[in-house]
Each structure stands twice: as structure tokens, then as C-alpha cells.
Design brief:
Structural class: mainly alpha
Number of helices: 20
Low-confidence stretches: 6-17, 509-513
Largest sheet: 5 strands, parallel
Distance between the termini: 41 Å
Helix content: 55-70%
């Protein structure tokens, strides 16, 4: 077991401080501590743990010890995506600070209880290598008290015989939320006595988290130690959509906002109103969510391949930081498996439910045979999409203008055609508008313009209105101007409301998808 958590390769282009700068920073930090200790030789000393005495986070170290890594990573990811603390009482402070770490530790304890054995046997001894040796040499002989928002059951095996239990002020496993809400100062008063903190020296790296102690302590040394790294638990494990969220579009919530929030919503609107019944609509909605996930899991393989090949084939590649964090083969294997599972679940909902599909058109009445047929069609679509993206990645940059629209059409029309989903004329117009508005800024970008200055949402709204108007003139109005058309118009208008104001006010807008 390596030092906790498993280190991940630094992102490409990430600045690295010169060795001399780190040495000077370390000398400055220790000098500040030495001065404070020398000025008050008899004062009690309180030392923060995470980021100060331990140059990692003790809770992340514990969570990183969980095995198998993939299961632990999935549990932690599910908690961070769901954010259950938003529904829990705040208690006058930050919900995420009070609840996030306790919920994560409780979940691992409940679902992977053997992690505690792994932590005591291998994780904690490995984590001790991240102790701040320079600081330990100074505060250990002074009988320092260690104060942390971490967990007693985690910290005690970590600190071992360096600090006895009476000198460790940490959170009880089941009372961690209350410990965080009350603050370290309250816990220190209970352990040290009512007035001991008022004459103490505090050494910490985080003024905000330890503000209650700073307000009381006679002297405080707030210093950032070189070598301190915030590494999330299980960060070396690749999970589906990690490449999109952490490399291709970091901080943008692209999966939720674009894959599901745009392509998924457009496909749902296009098909729901052709489902024929409320039950059929519910089945279609659930199936669309699973199929969109399956489709974009394969699509993400193309994203990663694009960066890997760009380094080899383009004179000035737009390679994203962190593209080399995971091997391309790992991304492909993980996503292919996840896409197969999500796709099979989505196809099963269509095959065994009341929704009308290509199996009905072909006269396949047996649900098992229908599932096999639809699974085959879905697999063919994913293979076609993968081949199209592979061709796109191997085409010269300007030549990609011709391939890009095909990738966009496959997101909507490809899914509809592969499974024979019923769709309204207005739904077809909506899918066309979504695909078209992606192709326009991409062509502008490849021809030398700025991709991000086009008002994409306004263009989609205008395109949808024009296409529905053309359909209304060409087809019987009753077949076009129905609830689905109104839903599409409302959705496009809501998405475009901010960009519309910018365009009307003459500001440059746009955030290409």
C-alpha cells in the first residue's frame, strides 16, 4: 500500500515549484514555529492534524485504504453526486462540512466494514510516512495536543505511540456531526480544562476552520507547509465520465448540463409525447436516461482518443490538462462495460414495456426476441458511433467539419432510428435544431473563428421555431402543433433566456455545447 491516498499524475502544464523554493518555504515555516515556541516556552501547544502535522487528510487516507478500489470509488462518487447533506439539518453551519465526511465514512463502514481492518494493518502505517517530521520534532517533546475534525478511530492507529489518546482531540465515529458543529475549541476545553486554551499556542494551516481556536489562543501560527497535498480518496481509480468531468470539461458539470440536460432532455421531449399512454411515457423516460448514459459512455472514449491522437497528429493540438491521468485502454474497458450494462437495462425497459419500438414494426411479439433484436440494433449504433468518432479523430482538423454533424445527428436521430422509437414531427424538429446548433460553432472554430462567442441557445430556439413553422405549413397543423411542440418551445426558450438578453443588449454571448 502506497502513501495515502494513491498519488495521481499531475496535470500537464501544472506548475511545479523549484526545489529551492520548497526548501526556503520549509525553512520559513519552521522558523515561524520555532519563534512562537521559544517566545512562550511553558505554554501548552495545540496542533492541527490534517495539512499540518499530517501532510495529507486523515479521512481521505482512511477512505483510500478501502478495497476493492472500484467499489469504494463508486460508493464515494454516488455520495458526492447525490449530496444527501442538502436534505439534512444545517445546525447553523455548512451542511457539506458537517455531514459530507461523516456520511462517507459511515457508508464505507456499513458497506465495506473490512476497511477498518485494512486501515489498522496497512493503511495507517503507510499514512504515517506523510507525517510532518520537522514539525513533529518540535512539538512532540512539548506534549502537544492534536486537534482535528477527523475521526478518533482513524487518527489513533495513525498516530500510534507518538501521541497517547488523552492528547488526541478528534471526533467520535457516531458523534462526528456534533463535533464539527460545536468546533474544536469546545472539544479542547473539555479535554484541556476551561482556561488552558487561553494560554496556548496554536499551529495550523487553515485559519477559517480553526477560527474558534484562533479567537481564544494566546498565539497562533498559521502556515502552509510545503509538501502538503490534498488528494481525494480513490483518486487513482477511473470511473465512467471522469474524463469528461475532470479533463475535457473540468468544473462545467458537462455530463449533467449537456449530455443529460440537453441531448437527453431533447430526446425525452421528442419521444414522450408519442408514447401513447402515461405508463408508456414513464417507461420511455427511464429508458432514454439509461440509453443516453450508454451512448455517451462510448462517446467519451472518443473524447479521450481525441486528446491522445492529437499529440501525435496535430501541429498545435488542443490537449487538455490531465489527459494522461488514465491509460486510454482503461477508459475504453471501463466505459464499454458500463455502456453495455446501461444499454441492456434501457433496451429491456423498451422490450418488456408498452413503448412502441422497431421490434413492433418488425412484428416481433415475443419480449425475449424483442430484447435480443433491440440489443443487436443498439450495439450496432454504438459501434457505428465509435467508428464515426474514430474517423473524426483521424481526419485533418478542417476536414472534421464534414464528420462533426454526423456525430451530432447520431445523438438524437441515431438513437431513435436504431430502436424505432415513436417520435412526433415537432420532436424531429427539436432533435434537428439541437444537432444543427452544435455544428455551426464547430465549423466557425475550425475555420479560424471563436467557437465560444456564438449564442448557441438563441440559435437553437430560432432554428426550432423555423423548423416547426416549415412543418406546420407542410403537414396538417394538428400533427405538428401539439403538446410536444409546446414543450419543445418552452424548453428552448428557457434555455435561451439569458443569451437572449445578452443578444438584445448587444453583448457577446454564447457557450458552445
Amino acid at each position: 500500500m502506497t502513501d495515502c491516498p494513491q498519488a495521481i499524475p499531475p496535470a500537464s502544464g501544472e506548475p511545479r515549484p523549484p526545489a529551492g523554493d520548497s526548501a526556503r518555504a520549509a525553512a520559513l515555516a519552521t522558523a515561524r514555529v520555532d519563534a512562537a515556541l521559544a517566545a512562550r516556552p511553558d505554554a501548552p501547544v495545540v496542533v492541527d492534524l490534517d495539512g499540518t502535522l499530517l501532510l495529507r487528510n486523515s479521512t481521505e487516507c482512511f477512505l483510500d485504504a478501502a478495497r476493492p478500489r472500484l467499489l469504494a470509488a463508486l460508493i464515494l462518487k454516488a455520495i458526492d453526486v447525490a449530496k444527501p447533506w442538502r436534505l439534512l439539518p444545517a445546525g447553523g453551519g455548512s451542511r457539506s462540512f458537517a455531514w459530507r465526511d461523516p456520511l462517507r465514512v459511515w457508508a464505507i463502514t456499513l458497506l465495506m466494514p473490512w476497511t477498518w481492518w485494512l486501515w489498522r494493518r496497512r493503511g495507517a502505517p503507510a499514512a504515517r510516512r506523510a507525517l510532518n517530521a520537522a514539525l513533529q520534532a518540535r512539538v512532540g517533546p512539548r506534549g502537544a495536543v492534536i486537534a482535528t475534525y477527523g475521526f478518533q478511530a482513524v487518527v489513533r492507529p495513525l498516530l500510534g505511540d507518538l501521541y497517547p489518546a488523552r492528547r488526541i482531540v478528534a471526533a467520535p465515529l457516531l458523534g462526528a456531526v456534533g463535533h464539527r458543529r460545536r468546533g474544536k475549541a469546545t472539544a479542547l476545553d473539555r479535554r484541556m480544562g476551561g482556561e488552558a486554551l487561553d494560554s496556548a499556542i496554536l499551529i495550523t494551516d487553515h485559519a477559517e476552520n480553526d477560527a474558534d481556536i484562533i479567537a481564544r489562543a494566546a498565539d497562533s501560527v498559521v502556515v502552509e507547509w510545503p509538501g502538503h497535498r490534498e488528494i481525494p480518496a480513490q483518486s487513482g481509480v477511473y470511473l465512467p465520465f471522469d474524463y469528461t468531468e475532470k479533463v475535457k470539461h473540468p468544473g462545467e458539470r458537462h455530463v449533467a448540463n449537456v449530455f443529460f440536460g440537453e441531448d437527453g432532455v431533447a430526446l425525452a421531449i421528442a419521444t414522450l409525447f408519442a408514447a401513447g399512454s402515461l405508463g408508456g411515457a414513464a417507461i420511455v423516460l427511464a429508458a432514454v436516461g439509461l440509453l443516453i448514459a450508454s451512448f455517451f459512455l462510448v462517446y467519451e472514449i472518443g473524447y479521450a482518443e481525441n486528446d491522445h491522437l492529437g499529440l501525435k497528429t496535430e501541429a498545435r493540438p488542443m490537449v487538455h490538462d490531465g489527459h494522461d491521468r488514465w491509460p486510454l485502454a482503461t477508459i475504453a474497458r471501463t466505459n464499454a462495460l458500463a455502456a453495455a450494462i446501461a444499454g441492456a437495462a434501457g433496451v429491456a425497459l423498451l422490450a418488456f414495456g408498452p413503448a412502441r419500438t422497431l421490434a413492433d414494426t418488425l412484428g416481433i411479439a415475443d419480449p425475449g426476441l424483442a430484447f435480443a433484436a433491440l440489443a443487436g440494433f443498439w450495439t450496432a449504433l454504438l459501434v457505428a458511433q465509435r467508428l464515426a468518432f474514430a474517423a473524426f479523430n483521424r481526419t485533418r482538423p478542417k476536414g472534421r467539419i464534414a464528420v462533426f454533424p454526423l456525430l451530432q445527428l447520431l445523438k438524437g436521430f441515431g438513437i431513435v432510428a436504431a430502436l424505432g422509437l415513436a417520435i412526433t414531427p415537432a420532436g424531429a424538429a427539436l432533435l434537428a435544431a439541437v444537432a444543427g446548433v452544435r455544428a455551426v460553432p464547430y465549423a466557425i472554430y475550425r475555420l479560424g473563428g471563436s467557437r465560444w462567442r456564438t449564442p448557441d441557445q438563441v440559435l437553437r430556439l430560432a432554428s426550432y421555431i423555423v423548423l416547426v413553422a416549415i412543418l406546420a405549413v407542410s403537414l396538417p397543423a394538428g400533427g405538428v402543433l401539439e403538446a410536444g411542440a409546446a414543450a419543445g418551445l418552452l424548453w428552448c426558450a428557457l434555455k435561451a433566456r439569458r443569451e437572449t438578453l445578452r443578444v438584445v443588449l448587444g453583448q457577446r454571448g454564447g457557450a458552445g455545447a
